[in-house]
Design goal:
Layout: E1 2-9, E2 14-22, E3 28-35, E4 38-41, H1 62-68, H2 72-82, E5 84-88, H3 96-104, H4 110-120, E6 126-133, H5 144-147, E7 151-152, E8 158-169, E9 175-182, H6 183-186, H7 189-207, E10 210-214, H8 222-233, E11 243-246, E12 265-269, E13 275-279, H9 297-302
Parallel strand pairs: 5-10, 10-11
Antiparallel strand pairs: 1-2, 2-3, 3-4, 6-8, 7-8, 8-9, 12-13
Helix pairs in contact: 1-2, 3-7, 4-7, 7-8
Length: about 325
């Protein structure tokens, strides 16, 4: 079955809230609709919400309350949100620790990430994370150049060191050995982002979750962004139907060899600075035909065919 859920709110209260259900072969049915303090519940299709209408505070979601009180459908919807991770593509704070733990404890996804790094040919042979025991306060007075070589786990008495291993070449270009460097010493911002993002990426893929990333392409070469997207489009890798939802300014992804028309959405501000979201699949030519699969979507977009472009100067 499918659910359609949403709500409007301001700084003080939940203004409106709604939940609809659609089962295979049936039309969509209303489960509950809320407008300020008034909540109308379907007695036939949402019995778990009956009698709970007056228990909801004005600044609390009705769905959350019913789920907390063991509502089956409510918990099903809430489980969807719990399996959804929202990340920033610019700031890795909040998920880099997750990635470190994946490698440090060799959790599910660590080997997948290493194979992904190798396929991208990022310039290093391997990536490793290890514990380094140091006396308490050992780095308190150390220069920044030393502090940058280690990253401390504040919940323990050890430091976590991240290293990438590179080939060493002689004057003839022959590999004569390997040498390890701290991640921040040798790697570009793009490479560091791929490493930091690998934990959430492969956790999402292996668990069949959803991953929402704002500014996915920030700091990344277009081919790196493309390969991250292709992970989710490959059924041999994405075996559990994980979903990647991302915002980007990378027009190279406007390619129907990578994405379907219904997977490409545009965001455009209107005259009152609200943002409209609309899909490529909604567009039709003068004859009423949908956008053909052989269209150059990138070129059409830059020329303004689909809107959602900035106006510069005149």
């Amino acid at each position: 079955m499918l659910f359609r859920y949403g709500f409007d709110y301001d700084d003080a209260e939940i203004i409106s809230e709604w939940l609809f259900e659609k089962r295979p072969g049936e039309r969509e049915y209303e489960l509950f609709v809320r407008l300020h303090d008034s909540i109308e519940v379907s007695p036939k299709r949402f019995q778990e919400g009956l009698g709970k209408e007056d228990l909801t505070n004005s600044n609390r979601l009705f769905l959350s309350l019913v789920a907390q009180l063991k509502g089956e459908k409510s918990n099903s919807v809430m489980a969807w949100f719990r399996a959804t991770n929202v990340l920033s593509g610019i700031d890795s704070e909040g998920y880099e620790d997750f990635t470190l733990r994946m490698f440090l404890e060799h959790l599910n996804g660590a080997d997948d990430a290493q194979r992904f790094f190798n396929s991208l040919q990022l310039g290093f042979n391997s990536f490793s994370v290890k514990k380094v025991d140091l006396p308490k306060g050992a780095l308190d007075n150390a220069p920044d150049s030393v502090k940058s070589r280690v990253e401390r786990d504040p919940s323990s008495g050890y430091f976590v060191e991240l290293t990438t291993t590179h080939n060493v070449y002689d004057e003839n270009g022959t590999v004569v050995g390997e040498r390890s460097f701290h991640k921040n010493q040798m790697e570009s911002e793009g490479t560091k982002k791929v490493i930091e993002l690998s934990g959430p990426l492969f956790d999402t893929l292996n668990e069949g979750k959803r991953l929402i990333v704002d500014e996915l392409d920030a700091k990344l070469h277009p081919l790196l962004t493309r390969n991250i997207v292709l992970l989710f489009m490959n059924p041999d890798i994405n075996k559990k139907g994980a979903q990647l939802i991302f915002a980007t300014h990378d027009t190279n992804l406007l390619d129907l060899d990578i994405l379907r028309r219904d997977q490409i959405w545009f965001a455009e501000k209107d005259n009152v600075e609200s943002t409209d979201i609309y899909s490529l699949v909604e567009f039709k030519d003068v004859d009423g035909n949908k956008v053909r699969n052989d269209r150059d979507i990138k070129r059409d977009y830059i020329r303004g065919r689909y809107g959602a472009i900035p106006f510069v100067g005149n």
